[in-house]
Write a structure and sequence with these properties.
The complex is a heterodimer of chains A (444) and B (490). Chain A has 444 residues and is mainly alpha-helical. Helices cover 66% and strands 5% of the residues of chain A. With 490 residues, chain B is mostly helical. Helix content of chain B is 74%, strand content 1%. The chains are: A mainly alpha (444), B mainly alpha (490).
Chain lengths: 444, 490
Amino acid sequence: MSDASLQSPSAAPARKGSLHRQDERTRKRNAAEARFRGYGIAAIAVGVFFLVVLAFSIIRSGVPAFTHTVLDVEITLTQQQFDEAEAQLFKTKAYAGYFNATLTAELERRGISVPFDEAAIERLAGKVGGTLREFYRANPDQLGQPVTFELPASSRVDGYFNGRVSRDTLQESRFLMLADLDLVDALSEAGIIHGTFNWNFITGADSGVDNPGGAGIGASVVGSFFMMLVVLFLSLPIGVAASIYLEEFAPQNRFTDLIEVNISNLAAVPSIVFGILGLAVFIQFAHLPQSAPLVGGLVLTLMTLPTIIISTRASLKAVPPSIRDAALGVGASKMQAVFHHVLPLAMPGILTGTIIGLAQALGETAPLLLIGMVGFVARGYPDGFIAGFTEPNSAMPAQIYTWAARADASFYDKAWGGIIILLIFLLTMNIIAIILRRRFERRW
Amino acid sequence: MPLFWLLVILLAMAAGGYVLGRARAIRSAGGDSRKLHSLPVYYGSNVALKVFVPAFLVILLWLLIQPVYVASVVSGMLPDGAIPDNSSRGLVMAEVRRAADGLDNAVAAGLMTENQARNARADFQDVTQRLRDAGQIVTSDVTQPVLRSAQRLRVMESTGSMIMAGVAILLALGGLAWGLRDSQLDFRARNVVERGVMVLLIAAASIAIFTTIGIVFSLVFNTYEFFTLYRWQDFFFGTNWAPSFSGRGGSSDLGVVPLLWGTFYISIVALSVAVPVGLFSAIYLSEYATSRLRSVAKPLLEILAGIPTIVYGLFALLTVGPLLMRVFGDEGLGWMQAGTAVMTAGLVMGIMLIPFVSSLSDDIINAVPQAMRDGSYGLGATKSETIRQVVLPAALPGIVGAILLAASRAIGETMIVVLGAGAAARLDLNPFEAMTTVTAKIVSQLTGDADFASPEALVAFALGMTLFVLTLGLNVFALYIVRKYREQYD
């Protein structure tokens, strides 16, 4: 100590100037500090930037799926015209002729002249003749009265309106010619072609590979719903029972350790391995029906169980031991203390964890592909409640995957639109979980 | 669906047993429930448990064992001559099963009476023709032994489920009688019920073990079968992945090396995005950020973890891929041929992993005691020096564990690589080439009408086994590191 005080005057170089002026080394250290801080801010900014880009591209690309382009044409068909058309050899062609005549008249009335032929109309709006004939054969009483037809335009016309197809990039094909776009422009100017909300996308089922316009997500929403029912009614009771045992009753022994190790490992097993399990055990071995929401639900139950068990155990642990002691003190058995007192107090936390587990299961795709729940099996709604579990169906994420994997770019809009619907479901579930937690969670 | 109704009947019987047991116990106490040993609820529950649980267990076991037994009997019925040279007993059994399903559907559609479907001596041509009329059998001709076996299969299955229903209901009735006989004044109903509930709790907890066993068995058996058809040396060391699409051909090259390479390459790209971004955000959020910024930024980052992977897959395929193409593609630097590439998938997977790394590291950094920081500040260190030289070294094992867990997540990720990485298996160093991964190939080998006995389908199980062992190893290693190097700060 005395040495230090002796040497200090000569060892420390005399400071020149004010303390307010930083020397070289301090400046360097402060700069390093600022840089380090900058890295942190940059990292968070990058993360948030990715989130914004993701949200932006989902909304920008997904919204067009909810609208589609239609041709509104008012047609009056007389009984005589109907009889004439039915008497001809090519009946639908005759109807198409009426349609074109009406359209020409309509355009002329508005002073727009653009040449078009039947083939162009067929490229734009499909087989209008067939639609007309079907309608009038089913509703003969509408003959002679003006009827407004709302005909869905082809997906390429949709693409022209939302910018996917432009005049520069258009490749002329039997689906759309460059000249057709003039007609589309003219019709759009006349207000005959316009966009409306696409209800079919929300309520419809999957369409064929060649009909992107008719594809809807409704059937696979129903498939997801039945799957979630299975997951809820299996994973909630089993998960709660397992957590109660592990948290409240399990003795410290090998068996308990084995269960714990298994649960923590299962939580980290890739989801596709659960798909393999489902394929081998439920379909190959137990011969449950392929592509059924029941099997999908079973696989997802096994997958979400670890998540639910972990969160349930956390909320059981959060209930203070004094509650148990008080119950035991007034003569309740251990089981009664748990089921009558601890469990109800832990319930909000358990439900929150379960909803989050369900949300995770709802977005899972890979295991469903392996058990055959791919999009194209979702061709319609199930016949009844029980059939909903066993009839082949798809689920929302699997349907989105099927659309994304198709060659026709028009399906991409549908896939993005499907993602918006999926995210709306997930958001709702998460908001419910947050509200539950805010409203019922107790701090001890 | 008779199984459904069977369960409904059992549940109704249990409910009835509950009411009866409770009433009988109260009657034995002369209407004064205070004289009973337990609360009346327990007498009712005792009966209900005895009605439902044994019958339900029998149904479960029966459903597990019956298909195996029936299959072994029926496949024993097939004469050796009925199995074509280029086929196996398993394939013929699959045909038998299809024929049986066809018969079922034909009966359900009213094209055949139950008797026609059952009668083994029915004119065989006639049955085949009827099945084809019903649009049921689309594969090959139904031969005589196959049809016989299918009929036998149907008969055995329907009698089997009849017997099962009978046994279950008898057991339930027995349980009802037993429970009701016990519902007396001095019966210790609560203790019995609690013991029963305890067994149920243990059973629920054991499901985790059974799931693991199920995973291991389904992987091991099918992998073993694969290695009987395909040399394991060629699988593990083969550098070419080219499955033949005809199926059942010996011409497939099924080497796992290119797939593993693709998996690792994509994971490395993903980690090199996720680790810096995630780690630095965790450091900033736990050391610098005000509580207001923290309460906004942390949930925002965690949204990224809640987004389903299919969304990321589509994002890779339709947004990131074209974006990278514009920079690195033919119009830009010319390094990239198509939008699907290692870079696309890796980048997007990295975004997905950011919150995973950041929230795990955040917890670990927060667990470093404040006293260590204060000591460092006391010596005159700046904040960043404290973090770099004190906090991070103390948190290092935990952070390494978090990175390893993220790596295991990256290896097991499926949808992003299925959509974003391409389908060609390739051993290449260029990150702008399309490559494929183990998970992507599991999906492509097992979707579609694959024939489960061919090496092209069975290879998926071997790939699944590889994946399972890899991720499990990584997880165990991560936990080991965390445990071994964790400083004890108490």
